[in-house]
Amino acid sequence: MRDVVFARRGSGWLPQVIRTDGELRLRLAAGADVNHEPRTFTVPIGAAHLAVIREDLARHLLLFSALLPLCDAAGTGGGLDEDAAVALLDPVLLSAPADVDALFRRIEWDRSRLVAHGADLDLLERGQVYAAMRAATETPDESRAQEYHAARRRAERGVVLGPLDAGVLRFTGQYLHGATLPRRLPDAVDPALLPQVMQVIATAEQACAGMRIGLDPRRGKRATDKRDWERMTATVDAAVRRAYPDLVDDAVRTVSFLMCSEAADRARNSRADDDEAADEHPEVDDGARKTALSFTDDKGDAQTWLRGGPRTASAAFWDFVADRSAGDNEVFTIEDEERGEGIQLHFYADSIARITTVRPGAAGSAPQYRVEYRLVDGIGGYRTLVGVFVRGGCAALDRHGPWTPDVAEIERARRRRDDG
Questions:
Q1: What pLDDT is attached to residue 318?
Q2: What is the C-alpha to C-alpha distance for residues 108 and 33, in angstroms, rounded to an integer?
Q3: Is the omega angle on the peptide bond into residue 402 within 30 degrees of 0, that is, cis?
Q4: Which backbone phi and psi does 347 adopt, to 5 degrees?
Q5: From CA 318, how far away is CA 168, in angstroms rounded?
Q6: What is the predicted pLDDT for the residue at 279?
C-alpha cells in the first residue's frame, strides 16, 4: 500500500515522498518509455532526508537535479541505479553548502531544473549551486530554462546577442529554437524596441519586393524552387547587413528565413497557370497553341489534356509531374500526336530533348525523328521551355537554344557545368 507522505503543490514533477509497506521512498517521474510516457522511479530514503526535503526547497530541488541524469541513463526500460541514487542523498541533503558545491562539480546534474525554479544564473555559472537556489520557487518557469539554454547554445558558438538581435529573433519566434518556422510575433518584442525591429523587417521587405519563390513540382506539390529560395536569401541578407552591420548572423538569417517562408507560402497558396514565361516571348504564335497533348512518365502513366478545359496545358502538365515525380521516375514527356512533335524532360540530368517527326511511318516502315538536346537551368528553365512548347511547338523553341543532336556533346557540356 502506498501513502503520499509529502508533496509540494507548486509542481507535480517535483519528487514526492511516499510510504510503501512501511518504508519511506522518494518517487519521481522522469525520462520516458517507448511510448513517450513518463517513467516513474523510487529511491529509499530515511526520516532525516524527509525532514530536509519537507523544510528546504533548495535542497529538494538540488536532489531532483542530481537524480535526473540517473533516470535518463535508465533509458526507456532499464532500471534505476539505486545504489548511485542512494549515494547522493546524504551529500545533497545533509552536508554543508560548500560540500554540496563540491559534489556538483564532480557529478552530472540537470541544470535546466534549477534554472526553471529560479536559480541565480550568475551564481550558477560560478559553481555556487547552493547559494544560487536561495531564491528558489516551487512553481517552475519553463520559458526561463528554455531561454537560458538557448543563450548557452549560442555562447558555445561564440554568439552574444545585443538587444536588437534578441528583438529580431523574438519577433520571428526563433529566439529559443532556430529550426522553428518563423512567424511575425510583434507582441513578443519589448514595445520600446519594436519600432527598431520593424525597421529591420521593412529593410528586408524592400530588398525582396517583386521577388518570388516558385514551386518545384519535381519534388512534389508543395516543394519550392531551391534556387529562388537561395536568390532571395542572398538578396535579403546583403540588404540587412548593409543597413545593420552590427546584427549577428543569427538575426540576419532569421529575417531572410521569414521573407523566404512567406514567399513560399504565397506560392503554395496560389494557383498558378504557369504560362507567364511563355507570354513574355513574342515569337510564340498564339494561333499555334496546342489543342490536345499527351503527358507520359517513365513508369508508363499517361494523361491527355484538351484545350478548353479548366486548366492550361502547362498547369496540367506540372500537376502531372508533381503527382508522379520521384527518384526513380525523372523522365516526363509532352507529345502533340497531331503535329508529330514533343519534348522530353530529363530531371536527373537537367536537360531536355525536342523531338520532331521528319518522316511519318508508311507501309510498315518506322517513322524518322529528329532529336535535339539542350541543358536546362533549373525548374525556372523547364517552366519557360514547357510554356513555349505548349503554345508554339518545337519551332517556337528555336530561339531557346542552342540545341544539338549530339548526345555525347550534351553529356560533356553537362559534366563541365557540374564540375564548374
A1: 95
A2: 22
A3: yes
A4: -65, -30
A5: 38
A6: 42
Q: Backbone phi, then psi, for 189, in 5-degree steps?
A: -105, 140
Residue 5 and residue 2: Cα distance in Å, rounded?
A: 9
Does the pTM surpass 0.70? The reply is: yes
Give helix 378-392 / helix 226-243 axis angle, nearest 10°.
Answer: 130
DSSP line for 150-175: HHHHHHHTT----HHHHHHHHHHT-S
State which H helix or E strand residue 266 sits in.
helix 249-269
| Beta-ladder partners of 371 | 355
Rounded Cα gap, residues 381 and 386, in angstroms: 9
Q: What is the largest CA-CA distance in the chain?
A: 105
pLDDT of 38 reads 83
Task: Pick out the chain residues at pLDDT < 50.
Answer: 273-284, 287
DSSP letter assigned to residue 180: S
Could you say which DSSP state residue 404 is in? B
pLDDT for the residue numbered 278: 40
Cβ within 8 Å of residue 49, ≥6 positions away = 24, 26, 89, 93, 94
State the DSSP code for 81: -
Q: Which three cell numbers stand for residue 346?
A: 530529363
Are 112 and 145 in contact by the 8 Å Cβ rule? The answer is yes
Cell of 318: 506540372
What nine digits make up the cell of 414?
553537362
Cβ proximity of 393 and 339 under 8 Å: yes
